[in-house]
Recover the amino acids of this structure.
């Protein structure tokens, strides 16, 4: 009976820890490889802790890769995979739990037939296929959906999450972030700025002069720029109000009804009527930086070092 209680307590403890997002942790030290002695496990003790379903993983010889290097794994828990001998990347696929991926990633082995290089190989393990913007570690997603008013796009973005990170209409606050987002655009898309006095979308729009705010995301409620007349604007300055990327002549409040910001597909910004739907292709969601977000660690690496025996 006491043994049962102990097991139950451990399970509860595990589930509490698992609520804290998603993290891969590599073991300290390195793996040791000896030529012609067979494949060696890279990290049989790595951990993957979290709750979200993971849609795949990659294991890449990120540094030191030479022809003849190979990565192999055991196809456990319904996780399949294939190794690309040209790029040195093993790609695992299957929508499975962190525990399932932990088991599969622990079986990954390194081998090489190349006697030409005994330089250390740096092997990087990465969960999922989402790519973050290196400037802030945030993730971005273009969500197609033409018939969506701005306020509905905002609500739909807020209902989305990536590995527990809360979604929001994108808030591009630097040129580099905007350029990163631009690559994802397949058409005009809503983003997170609106004419406001507080960060909430107004129900009727004032004429000029008016003020643009961030109306979504961690920056909600912060002023973006003053808009004195058609095509004339002045960024308010500060960390989140110094960058704008309005298209030429925008924001112009065309017909006096344009109070929500959208991307053109070239990454420039335009003000549009907030219920405009026909000319939009979807909305741009950003993940990361929201207070209360869980910690996410999607990648880690371990060295394979060569020894003579
Ligand atoms: Ca942002
Ligand atoms: Ca406009």
């Amino acid at each position: 009976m006491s043994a049962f209680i102990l097991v139950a307590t451990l399970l509860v403890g595990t589930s509490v820890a698992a609520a804290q997002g998603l993290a891969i942790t590599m073991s300290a030290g390195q793996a040791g490889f000896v030529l012609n002695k067979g494949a060696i496990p890279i990290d049989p003790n790595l951990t993957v802790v979290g709750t979200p379903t993971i849609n795949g993983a990659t294991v890449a010889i990120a540094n030191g890769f030479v022809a003849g290097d190979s990565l192999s794994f055991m196809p456990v828990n319904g996780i399949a995979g294939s190794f690309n001998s040209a790029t040195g990347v093993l790609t695992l696929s299957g929508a499975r739990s962190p525990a399932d991926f932990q088991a599969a990633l622990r079986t990954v082995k390194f081998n090489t037939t190349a006697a030409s290089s005994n330089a250390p190989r740096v092997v990087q393990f990465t969960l999922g296929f989402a790519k973050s913007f290196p400037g802030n570690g945030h993730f971005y997603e273009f969500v197609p959906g033409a018939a969506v008013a701005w306020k509905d796009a905002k609500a739909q973005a807020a209902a989305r999450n990536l590995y527990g990170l809360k979604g929001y209409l994108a808030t591009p606050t630097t040129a580099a972030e905007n350029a990163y987002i631009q690559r994802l655009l397949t058409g005009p898309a809503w983003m997170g700025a609106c004419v406001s006095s507080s960060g909430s979308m107004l129900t009727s729009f004032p004429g000029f002069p008016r003020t643009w705010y961030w109306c979504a995301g961690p920056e909600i409620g912060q002023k973006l720029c003053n808009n004195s007349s058609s095509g004339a604007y002045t960024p308010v300055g500060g960390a989140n109000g110094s960058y704008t990327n309005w298209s030429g002549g925008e924001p112009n409040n065309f017909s006096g009804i344009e109070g929500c910001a959208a991307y053109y597909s070239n990454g420039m910004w335009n003000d549009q009527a907030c219920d405009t739907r026909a000319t939009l292709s979807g909305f741009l969601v950003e993940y990361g930086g929201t207070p209360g977000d869980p910690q996410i660690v999607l990648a880690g690496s371990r060295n394979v070092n060569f020894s003579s025996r």
